Each structure stands twice: as structure tokens, then as C-alpha cells.
Amino acid sequence: MEKGQTSVALSKYRDQHFKGSRDDQEKLLFTSSTLYIGNLSFYTTEEQAYELFMKAGDVKRVVIGIDRFNKTPCGFCFVEYYTRRDAENAMRYVNGTRLDDRIIRTDWDVGFVDGRQFGRGRSGGQVRDEYRTDYDTGRGGYGKKVDKNMMDKTGDSGSGFKAKQHWVR
Amino acid sequence: LLQYYSIIRKPVILFLYFRCLLPVSGMSSKRKYSSDESEPEDDEDGKTKTRRNEASDVEHTLESLILRVGKKSKSPVESNLEGLASVLETDLPNYKNKLLKILCQQVVKAPSEMTVYTTLVGLLNASSFNFGGEFVEMASRMLRECLKSCEFDDALSCVRFLSDLVNCHVVESSSLLAMYSAFLNIGNLPGVRRVQSDWYVYAVLSSLPWVGRCLSATKPAELNNLLTVIDGYFSHRDKSYLSMLRVWSTDNPHPQEDFLECLWAQIRQLQSAHWEETLIVRPYLAFIGNLSAALQHALPPIEPNVSEDDVNHYPLPWVVYRMFDYADCPADMSLLPGHHSIERYLLEEQVTQILADNHLERKVCAKALVAHPHYDKLPLNYIIIEVMFGQLLNRRTPPYLEIAYGSLLIELCKERPTTFPIILAQTVQLLYDRLDTMHITCIDRFASWFAYHLSNFQYRWAWDDWLDCMQPDKDSNHPKLWFVREVLAKCLRLSYYQRVCEFLPETFVMLVPPEPKPDYRYKSENRQTENPEEDIVGIAESLIMTIKAKSGIQEVVEVLKRCPKPSDDLDDPDVVTNSIAIDVFTQTLFFLGAKSISHSFSALAKFHTVFRALAESEESQILMLKSIYDLWRHHHLMLILIVDKLVKSQIVTCRSVANWLFSVDMAADFTRMYTWEIMNSTLKKMNKHVLRLQTELSDVEEKLVGRAMSEVPSDIQAQAEALQERLEQAQAEQKNLFLIVFQRFIMVLSAMVTDTGPASNSPSWNRVVHERLQELFLVYNQQINRYTTTLENLLFTSDIDEHIYNVFQQYKALRS
Predict the structure, then answer these.
(1) Are A6 and B498 within 8 A, CB to CB?
(2) I need a labelling partner for B621 at 20 to 30 A (CA). Which of B190, B250, B436, B694 fits?
């Protein structure tokens, strides 16, 4: 592999909702200057994301991902740079470091269009939060399935309610 | 592959074995490489095609063998070299040109493996005198070309390589000494500047660790003469630029030496140790018998053409950054090599090279650093930290992004969790202790890095160790207090208010930054009068209602027209642009968008035309900026981002931002870090704009190259001309911007004595501003170089304040 290529390589993720062929998607990923950022806390603000990602280059915009039902942040965002080179530097130096005390993951994104800011999980948040079994205070506590199980058994959800109350700091 | 060589050392058998390997690897590489080269015409018997493919396969395999010979392997490098040399010797007649090319490329591409390749060339020279001669010829030509195109790093690699070839009996020591003499003589030629002759002296000095021993054994008298000449060079060398480059203003505890003087001291120490050093790996020692029988070549004369035009391409001098000496390192290890030991120099060079080779991949870089052969033998980890901080805190721009250093340091902490975190903590404490004399540019970088680092380690720090920063003898611009406040401001930006309150101990409650909330002037409780003609709060409230009702721009303008004119405004009643209208609109709109930066940007976009109309003059633009400052002065990031957007949307000019930052209203915050972020961001935007136009223009001009005027389509011609005009306009704006900034600096610094503002007569305020002026010269020296004469004639004349005048002289001295 060419020097300096490993940290900017594409991951295995391909957007299943992408309208076009795999080839089209990959072409866009290879030229994109937009990054998907994962594992954010529900409470992380746009400004915090700007502050960190600005260190890699001029940020054009940040779009916080939101729950498609209650329109509250659900733990991911898009960061768009003006140039590919700046986005590459974010992949090199920000991926795997902490934002808001959490280790975040950056990955190439085909580019933001309206609609992509919504979580795609059944409950409205991200898919990964549907099946997650750990307790994560920054991401609404237990995953939705665990929450549902608890609800069924005890009539009380483990976490979701508290998270919604506190989302605005 | 090469493992087998150690078993069967006969060249012929090796060669046959190697050839046998070809058909196996041949299939995939054949397809790969036949697509690289154009398909040869199909011969009647198809023989030519096969032969050519075979040939390129062999070349490809040879190349990869050569590229890999210096890498870590199971067998020692000497046996790999021996095997490879045998293989290459048999291929010499057929693949000579290719081999020459690959080896020459390795001179500049693999400087960290230099002695491996010099040994290889030595072995090949021993078996073929002609090959050796052609290589020397080619490498010398490469050196000449590098010097001509001002590729100084590559040129340095060439000089060192040629020097080491003396050790390998490829080059005659007398001819190397002749080249060195020619280099040293550059300083005597008319019109040559110190910055130019310095490079040539540096090239000679930095090659001596490799070849000093050999030269002192074979040509002691000539070597001594050379050293005497160098001594003479230093006796009349002007270092007045040094204070422009120092990180600390004091030499206590470690002197900050000029790079060339330090190296000279290190070479003199090496000389007194009879040129013996133990760090450089010298594979040629294993082949002394073979090599010493070889015939040597003379270097062709290298007469560098040193012209005035190239001055700006020569590397600027630097100061040797020292934080540690042996007393700082743990006692259970070998001593850290002293400041003037050649080992210190060589280790720093090696660490610098590893960073240069791997800075794009932080995990690989961290692993490469700790894999250094001397990592466990001496406190190399201290040297690694010192080199990295030396780059990060240098007065000019660091070679890589600040976050590259930050994230690499985190990787190193992961690689060696029991040592690096401790050394870093030691570093932070050490730097804090020495803040009193540290330059503001460096404190700024240190604070920025430290906050980032803390954000990755839950903000855990022994804050109480720093209680002294709040002592009454320290005003707000005292380095320690300034540093802690700015670290906390940055921590706030990376996290949030509650978090900062949580991690700071009770003892620091005074330093908790203000909550980053907007301060809206037109809240209903601020209503001053019920009179509708003068009730500005009422107008603001109507404005809010109008905007929320989505009535449209015209309605909004109508509301604004109700704003009373301030008593000193002489405008006619129809015009909306009065200072009250500007303030009401700006504050209200950005207050409505206060929820997030997206909301603010969205508000700006929606009402772009109104903003544009209100900001028609520089004066109105400055008022607008003031309104935003008043609203968001506790939330530095919002302020920075909104100002940036205003410039990008062309509502406000770079000039206005610069003038606003120097205005009386900003005097209290003038020395804060965020102010300089805005200043630098604005200047960089201007530079980026010019650069973009230059690139666009050269792209279009490329289409015109080599074609006669009549052949070029007229639209491309027109495009080029239009771009040229825009570029010239942008360059004029850029020059103007820098002139304004310098002019305002001079005004501010000169007014210190008479000014009655909030920061008057404060020596630390004065010092900070002075140092920020120096920062401008260094960070933007590439752009400012073009205007040195203008600056000299217009602004930095001999009648201005002595201190300011000196800054300019020192800046000029960098390239004198």
C-alpha cells in the first residue's frame, strides 16, 4: 500500500440506502470531502464537533444526526470540509481520538443530502442502538431491545426516558 | 528470497536460482507490467514480446530487491548486501541504466538507509569500475540539479551520500575535500547572502560525522585546513536574527543556540574525540578487504550557481530546541548525550527523519519511533518528545498540523503507557515553570496542545500545582496566568461549561471561564423608555415577531427603518444604515440563531441581502462586528465561526476585520488567544484566495504553453486575461491588508506611553503585543518577502520606536 494510505482507506461500510451502484458509491467515497462521525454522545454539540474538526482544516458545515421521531440528537454527525485533503487529515488525526470524552470513529461519506441526518433504527435512532446490550449513559442507557425487554418484564424502561429529559444541557 | 543466499553463496547458482523464480512470479507481474508499457508489435514468431516482458519482470524484481535490502530482516544486513551485490553484478551489463536509476533515486528517497546503499554501490564499484564511475557521475549530476531547483533537503542527502562513498572507496577523499572547499568558498563570492552560504557550510558540517574519521586518517592536513576555514566563517557571522527565533528569551537553564553554531560545536567535540562515534551503522566495515582493493573516482566539479533570485528558497535558520539534559532523565539508563555531543545531533536527525517518513500514519509512526535500535539503550524517548515539541513550539509554523503532533503523542502514550505519559507530564510541568520567558507564539501553541491533550485524558491534571498563577503579583497578561486562562478557554470549547466546573478544583473557582451564553442587549428588562420613537427594545421585539412570522425581507427592512438615528449620524431618513439599525438587526438575528452554529448560518443566509445592505461601508462592517462581539464575547468559538462566515459570504472584508481587531473596543481582549485566531484566520483566508487564483491561472496558462497566439481559442485567452486581472487585484488587496495590519501595530505600540486605555502602561501587555508583531513576520514571511522594500520605505522607517525598528531589522537579518 502506498505510504500514507492506510488511515484514509475506505472502510467496509457501504450505505444500503444509496441510490446507485456500488461502483458509483465507491467513486463518490474516493473523492468525497464529507466524513461520517460515529459513537458521539447524544449531548455532543455542533460547536464541540467544529472545535475538534477545525484542527484538521477549514470546516464547511457540521450536520448533527437526529432521531427521526423525536428529532433529538442520536449520536452521529457529518462533517463536511471544503477540500478532500482536509478531510483526509481528519481521518488521519481525529479518527480514534476523543470528542466529548468518547472515542469517535470517522469514515468517508458520499456527501450529505437532506434526509441522511435521520437515524434509521426502528425506534428512530441509529440501528446500532437497537441491538446494543451495554449501558451507555451518553447514548440513552441501554439499547432499545434491552429497554423493551425490561419494559415487558418490569413495566419500566431502563433508561430512555431519562435521556430525553436531559438532552438539552 | 534472500534467505537462500546465506546457504548457497555462489553467484552463478544464485543467478540461476533467481532466474528460475521468474516464471512463477511471472504470470501476475507479466499482466501487470505489460499494461504499463505500450504493447510491442507482434513479431512473426512472438519472441520479441516475450523477451521484453521477461526483461521488465527482471527489472521489477531487481527494483524490489534493492528497495528492500535496507529493511529489517532475519539475516543481518551485511549478508543481504553481499547476496544482492552478487545478483546485481551478473545483471550489470544488461540492466545497467535501470540499476543506476534505482540506486540514484534511493539517495534521496531513503536517506535513513544511506549507509546500506553506499555499501552496495561500493561493492558494485569493486566489481565494475565503470559502473562506479557512472554512478558517481549520475549522483553528482543529481546534486547539481537539486541545487539548481532549490531542493535543499534532497541536495543534503546527495552531499552526505557522496561523502559516505569515500568510506566505501568509491570516491577519492581529495576530490571530496575539493568539493567541500568549493562549498565553503561560496561565502566569499560577491553578492552571496549569509542564508545561502550557511546552507553550504551546513552541508559540509553535517556530512563530517560519516566521513570525518576517514578524512583525518587519509588527508589530515587538508581536513585541518578545512576546519580552520570554517572557524574563520563563524568569526564574522552575523546572528542578529536569533532573537526572532528563540522560544525563551533567556538561556537559563539551556542555551538556545543557533543551529549552525551548535553543529560546529558538536563537530569540534567529535574532532577532539578523534572522530569516533558509535551511532552510525556502517555495513561497509564488513567488506573492508574487498572495498579497499577498489579503484576510486574523482567527483566532477560541482559549481553551484548561487543567485540573488533564489534567496527566498533557501531554508531559514533555526534555533536548537532544548528542554532536557541528562539530569531530567531516569538514573537507571545510559546518560542522555550532552548538548554538544554528535550523538545528540545524530539521534535528533534520525528522529526527525522518522517523523518525516511517517507523519501521515500516526500508528506506524509511533511504532517506528519506539522501534529505533537505540530506544532501550538510552533515553531516546526524551529525545523524541524534545524533537516533537521543538517542531510544535517553533516560532514559525510547525512542519505538520498541530493535531498531527497531538494525536501522535497520544499514540506514543498507548505504545508505552508506563513511560510516555510520565515524560509528557514532566514536560508540561517544565514548560509551565519556564513560561515567564516563553514567547507568546509558543505559549499559544503549548496551551492549545495541552487543552487538546487533556480532552483525551478526561481533563485530569494536578491543577493545584499551579496555584501560583493566581498570585496578586501577576496581571492578566502574565504568562502563567495567561496560559492557564487560555487552556481553560480551550477546554471549554472542546467540552462544555458544567464539565469545566466539574474538573477544576475549588481553589480555581476564580479562573472558571464565564458561561458561554449570548449577551443580548435588547431583552425586555433592558427597556429604557415606553416612547415608541425611542424604544429600541420595542423595535427589536417587532423584528423578532416579523422574522418568526416569516413575513419576508421587505417587512424586516420596514421594521428597521423605525430605528432612531443616533445623534451623530447625518444620514438621510430613508437610509437604513445607521449604527442603531445595524446593532439591532445583527444582535437580534444572531440571538435568534443562538441555538447552534447551523441556526446562525441559516439566519445569515436567509437575510444575506439585509446584511449586505447594512454593511455597505467599512465603518458599518466594523459596527456589525462589534455587535456580534458584544453578543458572543463569552463564546469565542461562535465569534470566530460567525466572523469567518461573514468574510466568506463577502458581507465583511478582511480589511474590516483587521481594523476591528485593532479598534479601541477590542483593546481589553486584544491579547487573548481567540483574537489572534481571528487575525490569523483572516490573513490566511486572504492568502488562500490569492493562492487559489494563482493555481487557476497557471492551470489555464498551461493550455497556452507552446502554442502560438493565433492557435489559441479566444475563450481561453479571455479566461486567462480575466484571471490575471483578478489575481492582480487580489494581490493588491493582500498587500494592502498586511500594510494595514503592520501600520496598526506600529500605531498601537507607539501609543503605549500616551494611551489611557485599559491596558496602558502594562509591561506585559506591551510585551505580548510586541511578540505578536514578531509572530506576523515569521508566520507570513513568504508573503511579506515581496513587500520588504515597501515596508521599509513606508512603515519601518528609522524614526519609529527603536524596539519596533529592531523587530524589522531582525526579520530582514533572517535572509541577509
Answers:
(1) no
(2) B694
